[in-house]
Amino acid sequence: MHIKMKLKTSIVKISNIPFHVTEPASGLVTKAILLFPEAHGTTGHISDVACRFARLGYKVFLYQLYYIQGKDVKFHLDPNDKETRDSLLQNICPNTMIADLRKTKDYFSQFEHFSIVGFSIGGYFSILASSVLNPQSVIAFYPNPTPNNFNYPFPVVTEYIPLIPKNSLLLFGENDHSIPASEVELVRTLAPQCKVVSYPKSQHGFFCNSRHTYNKNSAKDAWDRILKILA
Question: Of 28, 126, 205, 208, which is the most buried if we count CB atoms within 10 A?
């Protein structure tokens, strides 16, 4: 159930990186979330997620996956446009992304609480970002630790998984077409300090209510776990 709260949105640049910001319209905000979207960009689902966190009292900074390629902060792709999506992702340089995000560390450190949240390829990037930004927690939905299954030229993040803060949550679906059970077990082994959950009868995208893979029960349980972490 969403808490009724008036929100405001803006575009903020931190170290020349543009973020789409959603936050409570009034009061001092002392908590922040850095949100990494799925490969489709700023979809309605991701905007809704930002609003849900903002209603919890967070200032939510939505990272723009394709800003270096000249896409604006409201850019999003049709989920069926695989050709454009793959072309854009092929041109993301994770090392450049991390070097840019490192410049924002002082900014995010001013908040009393700072967490990183990511979905799918954004979950993968949330693990990378955690290695340089020192959040209190990471919440990653279906992050692939070795993204060869995606066919994108990204490095594995296995060396960073043990560094994820202990108050973190990594969420998977047992029937995920792109993340084998062996990789979920690899995450469990590398991150014993985190809570790793794999939902039965759930697929990639189980948290997104606009997808055919949406699983209401798994999504509710995931949100309840998130509330406990952010409490």
Answer: 126
Alpha helices in 34-191 (DSSP H): 44-54, 82-90, 94-102, 105-108, 121-133, 181-190
Residue 217: per-residue pLDDT: 98
* Strands of 97-173, DSSP E: 113-119, 137-141, 169-173
Q: Please, which residues have CB within 8 angstroms of residue 47's CB and are 6 or more apart in sequence? A: 22
Residues, the chain, total? 231
pLDDT for the residue 56: 96
Residues of the chain with pLDDT under 50: 1-2
Question: Which among 150, 151, 58, 147 has a CA at the least distance from the CA of 108?
Answer: 58
pLDDT at position 5, please? 85
CA distance 158 to 144: 10
| CA–CA dist 14, 18 (Å, integer) | 7
